[in-house]
Amino acid sequence: MTKKKRKYKKKQTKSISKSINGFLGHKKNETIGQWLSDRMTHWAGSWAFIIGFLVFLVIWMAINFYGWIKTWDPYPFILLNLVLSCLAAIQAPIILMSQNRAAERDRSKAERDYQVNRKAERENQQILRDLNQIKHKLKIKQGD
Question: Has residue 90 been placed in a domain?
Fold first, then answer.
């Protein structure tokens, strides 16, 4: 193998491994908004949030339905409906941002996997060429 090819292969190996290491530390480069959207999506999709929010809704309706405290939101619960609508309107784009970031991470991981596979394929081809050269020098036929 020539010196130029060795240098090229060494550079290629370094860039792929550097790229993979960059992927493993991907979270270091995220902005505050990206970090917040990931954390909020993680929390909003947890059982703790669902159960806690369900308890909040039951308490809200019970207080207003039975009128323990001066009712501020009578039976059709218009104010509660507004709160739920606002929560959904705020959560939807945040969840979409987090999903977009997950898709972006998946795409970059797939690209790195492809690069690693191409490198492995080139190395396998080189090994086969070397093996064929050895066979040729030892005068071994292909079928043997």
Answer: yes
Within a domain: residue 143? Answer: no
Q: Per residue in 59-108, pLDDT tens?
A: 888 877 777 666 677 777 888 888 889 888 888 888 888 888 889 899 99
d(CA 38, CA 35): 5
Give the global pTM.
0.52
**Domain, as residue range, for 68:** 35-117
**Domains in the chain: how many in total?**
1
In angstroms, the Cα distances linking 14 to 2, 29, 58, 71, 80 are: 18, 21, 58, 68, 57
Establish if 92 belongs to a structural domain.
yes
Only one residue has tokens 């039975």, namely: 66
Residue 98's CB is within 10 A of a number of other CB atoms, namely 20
User: Distances in Å between the alpha carbon of 28 and those of 9, 43, 84, 102?
Assistant: 29, 20, 34, 15
Q: What are the b/e assignments for 16-37, b being 16+ CB within 10 Å? A: beeeeeeeeeeeeeeeeebeeb
Domain assignment present for residue 80? The answer is: yes
Going by C-alpha positions, the residue among 22, 19, 47, 41 that lies closest to residue 102 is: 41
